[in-house]
Amino acid sequence: ETEFIWPGEDFGPSKAGFAAQSMARLDLDAGNFSLLTFRGPRATGALYVSELKISTNIAVMVGPTLVFKDIGIFNVAPGFTVYFGSAMDGVSGEQLEALSGGKFKYVPDGFLGGGFVSTLIDGRSVQVSRSVRFSPLLDSDSDGIVNAFDKSPFEGVVQTPNVVQDGERAFLIRWDGAGWGTYEVQYSDGLSGQWQLLKRVTNTQGTKRLLWVRDPIPETDGARSYRVLSK
User: Fold this and answer.
1) How does pLDDT run across 163-213, given as a tens digit for each residue?
2) Which residues are CB-neighbours of 176 under 8 A, at least 6 positions away?
3) Of 1-5, 99-103, 168-172, 196-200, which range is least confident?
4) Is 114 helix (H, G, I), strand (E, B) or coil?
5) DSSP 33
């Protein structure tokens, strides 16, 4: 499984959504028995893609018709929407949306063309709209620094873990980890607002599974907050 986490807001099927936070182009490629999951770090969200391209490893043209080898390869999480403005050559947006079972939503006026800059997301160079990259209001990775002043505004997307207390004066920090994903668990004491590293964790399996870290309750018994960053 490959998990694509994008911290975008959902502005609905509108050109405004593309102008505010679109990705220039997304090329999807995967082998047999793969799973491509799209979700955000919050309950609701969206990904806006000006051009959505799908590899021949996933779908092929049979005459004038696009045919998916396995439509189950795409998994769009509940509350998350993938909008696109144009598809690959020879395929209409309406056709791609229908063949995807509505998992990808076509917006006829969503193609924007220029106005994009290159940036790193999960270590890969990707084009995003200039207004998003240098926004003085958006904090795409939820790290407390707005994009305009963040050297890596899309790296290390923050997740809110489930935290429970066990019976031995310790907190269990739990979250869903993507296959082969690496995460950094951080904590903050009191109201200082300064995050410190607790532990780095890697999912050594190729499928999503529950990951956890145990943190003994400090002697001070002060308030402690936790967050998980994907690396």
Assistant:
1) 888 877 888 999 888 777 788 898 888 666 678 899 999 888 767 788 999
2) 208, 209, 210, 211
3) 1-5
4) coil
5) T
Do residues 19 and 132 make contact, with C-beta atoms less than 8 angstroms apart? no
**How far, in Å, CA of 3 to CA of 14, rounded?**
25
User: SS3 sequence, 143-212?
Assistant: CCCCHHHCCCCCCCCEECCEEEECCCCEEEEEEEECCCCEEEEEEEECCCCCCEEEEEEECCCCCCEEEE
3-state secondary structure of 93: helix
The Cα angle at residue 3 between residues 181 and 69, in degrees rounded to 5: 130
Distance separating alpha carbons of residues 123 and 107, to the nearest angstrom = 29
Q: What is the pLDDT of residues 31-40, one digit of tens each?
A: 777 888 998 8
Q: What is the pLDDT of residue 157?
A: 65
Q: How far is CA 97 from the centre of its chain?
A: 20
Which residue, 215, 212, 226, 208, is CA-closest to 175? 212
**Are 51 and 86 in contact, with CB atoms under 8 Å apart?**
yes
d(C-alpha 81, C-alpha 176), whole Å: 20
Q: How confident is the model at residue 162 (pLDDT cuts 50, 70, 90)?
A: confident
